Amino acid sequence: MERGMYSPTVLWHQLLGSILLAPLLYLLPIALGGLLLRRMPRLGGVLLTAGVALGYLLSIPFTAIWLAGQLERYPAIDAAQARQVQAIVVLGGGKKPAPEYGRDEPSADTLARLRYGAYLAKHSGKPLLVSGGAPLGGEAEAEVMARALSEDYGLAPRWVESRSNTTLENAKFSAELLRQAGISRIALVSQGWHLARAVPFFERQGLSVLPAPTGFIRYSGGGVFWWIPNGRSMQECHSLLREYLGSLYYRLRPGA
After folding, report:
1. What is the DSSP letter of 76?
2. How far is 71 from 240, CA to CA, in rounded Å?
3. Which CDD domains match (predicted)?
4. How far is the C-alpha of 165 from the C-alpha of 211, rounded, in Å?
5. C-alpha dihedral, 182 to 187 to 192 to 197, nearest 10°
6. Which is higher by pLDDT, 18 or 227?
7. pTM of the predicted model, to two decimals?
8. Rounded Cα–Cα distance for residues 223 and 200 (Å)
9. Which of 7, 122, 169, 241 has its CB 3.0 to 4.6 Å from that of 164, i.e. a possible disulfide?
């Protein structure tokens, strides 16, 4: 089902994140420092140095690993553990236009979750629920996910929850479907850094949750390589800081 309207809540989150997260997080101090360098050289120099330092730190593996270590609190599970639950819930993590297919396809984060959810479902025999709406309009993420599961893994999810636009709504609307089916024990699939926020939301809905993390942030090698900037680390630092910001938002939000 196509949706033409974006979610105002998600738009607000995007605008707030663009100000508080990279690249503006370090570009703004650099720009402001450059403007102040002649009139207030000491302050301008401090801002320039801080901006450059932030830009460097937020683009190296060491920082990504450190930030992830504070969020990836749940260990990996195996199929034997998944057999103890009644259903497997896979959370959407975005979609993207795919001209080669002529339609939307799951994002990289969503694909990682789908692959692990399919693995657990095939090895445990438990039914799948996919959850994700259309916060930016168009086709719901859950429908994109269901199609990918069918075409790529030969699996059909039993439930397709397509109303949610946030992680909090993922939990609320998924729980409604699961309660109707008499299900109270689930395995919850998402990136390890996302589950730190997602698991409590589902538990507040009265569900017993087995965290099933995937997409752990790990790097080969070590030593000097962890201090060399690269695009992957920059992207992962952005995702991790956004998760910290999201956790803070819901902690301060009444009723969350």
Report:
1. P
2. 8
3. YdcF-like (cd06259)
4. 21
5. 20
6. 227
7. 0.91
8. 36
9. 169
Q: Are 177 and 163 in contact (CB under 8 A)?
A: no
| Residues whose CB falls within 8 Å of the CB of residue 246, separated by 6 or more in sequence, listed in order | 13, 167, 197
Domains of the chain: 13-70+230-252 (no CATH), 76-214 (3.40.50.620)
Alpha carbon distance 188, 256 (integer Å): 19
CA atoms of 47 and 3, how far apart (whole Å) = 43
Other beta carbons within 10 angstroms of residue 208's beta carbon come to: 13
User: Residue 132 and residue 201: Cα distance in Å, rounded?
Assistant: 15
pLDDT, tens digit, 9 for 90 and up, residues 239-250: 999 999 989 988
- How far apart CA 90 and CA 212 sit, in angstroms, is 9
pLDDT tens digit string along 138-148? 999 999 999 99
Closest CA to 85 of 56, 37, 117, 131: 117
Could you tell me whether strands 87-91 and 185-191 are parallel, antiparallel, or unpaired per DSSP bridges? parallel
Residue 91 C-beta-side C-alpha neighbours within 13 Å: 33
Please name the residue ranges forming H helices in the chain: 8-20, 24-36, 41-57, 61-69, 79-82, 108-124, 141-153, 167-180, 192-203, 231-252
Nearest CA among 112, 78, 63, 72 for reference residue 92: 112
pLDDT tens readout for residues 190-220: 999 999 999 999 999 999 999 999 999 999 9
Residue 48 token pair: 């320039």
